[in-house]
Design brief:
Layout lengths: L1 E6 L5 E6 L2 H13 L10 E6 L2 E7 L9 H4 L2 H4 L16 H11 L8 E6 L3 H10 L3 E6 L4 H9 L3 E4 L1
Parallel strand pairs: 5-6, 6-7
Antiparallel strand pairs: 1-2, 3-4, 3-5
Helix pairs in contact: 5-6
Length: 161
């Protein structure tokens, strides 16, 4: 963090702490994840280029469809472990929604950084690779070794925050 001088009510100089850009966008990812409608995991993603937000996404059912919060979780009912059988879910992942929202609104994400609450799964990783995203910063891990390997092979910079 960078300290910036300020003056208090008494005219004395004080120091104000500003978050780094990575901290700033990770804080925003946390807020975005609160919109999630998944009953198992709250995930958020933010796409950024040149210190500007391009798109955001959180995990949940497609627009206009009933959410798992309302009708229950199929994966939970079927006792599907985390990270397996992604097709057995009503929801889209946060990373997918961020990419889709950018496409829907005609926003190029080539060369962008993706900030995520979690490391992307293999499905999201393949979308990230093909969409031209160059950097991923995530908060929590996710055990998907194929995702790790493919992102490395694609020369996408991946960093745990």
């Amino acid at each position: 963090m960078t300290a910036k001088p300020e003056t208090n009510n008494s005219g004395q100089e004080t120091q104000r702490q500003r978050p780094s850009w990575d901290q700033y966008f990770m804080d925003i990812v946390g807020l975005v994840s609160k919109r999630s409608t998944c009953v198992r995991r709250k995930v958020g993603a933010v796409l950024v280029r040149d210190k500007r937000i391009l798109s955001t996404g959180y995990n949940g059912a497609p627009s206009g469809l009933r959410h798992c919060l309302d009708i229950g979780c199929l994966r939970k009912q079927m006792k599907v472990p985390s990270g397996e059988r992604h097709e057995l879910c009503r929801g889209l992942h946060a990373e997918q929604n961020a990419i889709i929202q950018a496409a829907l609104h005609g926003v190029s994400i080539k060369g962008a950084t993706m900030y995520c609450t979690n490391h992307p799964c293999i499905i999201c990783s393949k979308m990230i690779i093909n969409s031209g995203i160059k950097r991923i910063i995530y908060k929590d891990g996710y055990s998907d070794m194929l995702a790790h390997e493919m992102l490395k092979e694609a020369h996408i910079e991946v960093s745990k925050f």
